[in-house]
Amino acid sequence: MKARRQLAGLRALVTGASSGVGRAVATELLTRGGHVLATARRGDRLADLAASLPPGSSAARCISAAGDITDPRFREHVVRVASERLGGLDLVVTAAGGGAIGALTTMPANTFRDVLDLDLLAPVELVQIALPHLAAGRDPAIVLIGSILGYHPLPLHAAYCAAKAGVVALAGSLRAELHPQGIDVLLASLGPTASEFWDTLLTGERPTWSGGRPMSAKTTAHAIADALERRRREVIPGWRAKAFVWAARHAGWIIDAAIPRRTD
Questions:
Q1: How far is CA 248 from CA 22, 142, 148, 157, in A?
Q2: Which CATH number does the domain housing residue 249 bear?
Q3: Out of 160, 183, 189, 244, which one is annotated catalytic?
Q4: What whole-number distance in Å separates Cα of residue 188 and Cα of residue 185?
């Protein structure tokens, strides 16, 4: 069995780092001694990331690049920047994401495609570009940010659930493919988490029946970093999320009974 992964000194590319889980993971990695290239669309949010670090964390180990991760040119750019400015790449964390709420029959054209592009296709293609650099890295790993809804869909969440189900499948396939190269794949299946998800929906609004106490992004990031150190295959932070995934795997009718077919 391999020893625990040491995050200090590892070089990470973190997407979606302007808020929520992405920002919290970037902060956690920096706190543990990592070097981070933080990316997101909102450059002003990235600019103050270093200033918000806890005492003892080195802002010099944090660089940023603003842009849209769904843009193929930007994906090429951030991997090149990570390789040049960090001196290589050891970790890729795909935390950028978003959703859309509404029935498929009334969803605006291309919205479903836009959600898949952001939540599934962009991470896939970013990982593809980064693989040669990870293969040459130190104790490399990929962290795919999934959702418990990747295990059991909910009404009005079709695009998001489809994308996150794809992330679950992607993690399993990549894990087997990349094992011979020594590249680990960690799937983070998140339940309700404090973020700007509901404020940045592509369309629709939070359903009246959607609830659940969100876990803090900081606690979630801590669990993800611990799982990286322990070389876990999957992390499901929080007992509520664990219970949901258990039910999804063994008794999906419980979830269906709790959340009946709703369109409001």
A1: 26, 25, 9, 16
A2: 3.40.50.720
A3: 160
A4: 10
Q: Is residue 95 part of a domain?
A: yes
**pLDDT per residue over 100-136, tens digit each?**
888 888 888 899 999 999 999 999 999 999 999 999 9
Establish if 4 belongs to a structural domain.
Answer: no
* DSSP symbols for 22-85: HHHHHHHHHHTT-EEEEEES-HHHHHTTGGGSPTT--GGGEEEEES-TTSHHHHHHHHHHHHHH
Tell me how many domains the chain contains. Answer: 1
Residue given tokens 């606690």 in the structure block: 219
Q: pTM, whole model, 2 decimals?
A: 0.92
In a domain, 3, yes or no: no
Domain that includes residue 221, residue range: 11-258
Query: Active site includes 151?
Result: no
